[in-house]
Design brief:
two-stranded antiparallel ribbon, nine-stranded mixed beta sheet, single chain
Length: about 250
């Protein structure tokens, strides 16, 4: 299975301006993500960006980057353009979409996202973590995966929602926004128009489910730290051993 890890990165963050270039222990965050992706040992790693400075910093660190258009509405659109640019012959079979704001993700988690592809019926693979606290169950910023168990460590996704679902006794699952696509599934997905439930929930993955595509989720033990705000950045720096006094003001 030929695998390509694509990391979309753009500067347009309102909560944390310049996020991909934020320093984490002497290297830009986007480079830290590329390091984690490379450590997974799956194959080629490419950053897909619309910003020349991001491309330059990534390449200076010894990683590959490709420029994409500025007007993409989603990361999946950006990685599809990047895929066609870096693999015009169509040799890559599987694409991992690793978000550029996960600088502390474990390489093992990147490998685990491919596990659902053991079943040839799976179009898109992702990750989920069982929720342990009530606060997370009711938090609309935490996306829940509603799924039917396939094995003890795998679910077939039936729905994604910001609400607390399903109702009744039993576990709830925190969706981790790391995806793997079969190439033909990614091509089909980006060709689809936004769907009704996708627009209502503001969750792009619902477009695939509404179109009849199959998404399976591997269960992992921890949710990786996503850097969305200044306090998240400080947590990431601390995990790399960067003293708070050395952090940017």
């Amino acid at each position: 299975m030929s695998i390509l890890i694509l990391i979309p990165a753009r500067l347009a963050s309102t909560r944390l301006p310049g996020k991909p270039l934020a320093d984490i222990a002497g290297r830009p965050m986007i480079v830290r993500v590329a390091e984690r992706a490379s450590a997974a040992g799956l194959g080629r790693v490419v950053v897909a960006t619309d910003t020349l400075e991001i491309k330059a910093r990534v390449e200076a660190a010894g990683f590959e980057a490709v420029m994409t258009r500025e007007d993409h509405q989603s990361g999946s659109d950006r990685i599809f353009e990047a895929l066609e640019a870096v693999d015009p012959r169509g040799e890559v079979e599987t694409i991992v979409n690793l978000q550029g704001d996960l600088p502390t993700i474990e390489p093992e988690a990147v490998r685990q996202v491919l596990a659902p592809f053991e079943d040839p019926r799976c179009d898109i693979a992702t990750l989920a973590v069982e929720i342990s606290g009530d606060a997370d169950r009711i938090n609309p910023n935490i996306v829940k995966l509603v799924g039917s168990p396939i094995t003890q460590r795998r679910l077939r996704a039936l729905y994604f929602t910001r609400a607390t679902a399903p109702w009744g006794e039993g576990p709830h699952y925190h969706h981790v926004g790391l995806y793997a696509y079969r190439r033909e599934a990614l091509a089909r997905f980006v060709a689809l128009a936004p769907s009704t439930l996708e627009v209502r929930e503001r969750l792009e993955q619902l477009r695939a489910l509404e179109a009849g595509m199959r998404i399976d989720a591997e269960l992992v033990d921890t949710v990786p730290l996503g850097v969305d705000a200044p306090d998240d950045l400080e947590k990431a720096r601390a995990m790399y051993g960067q003293p708070a006094k050395d952090a940017e003001p």
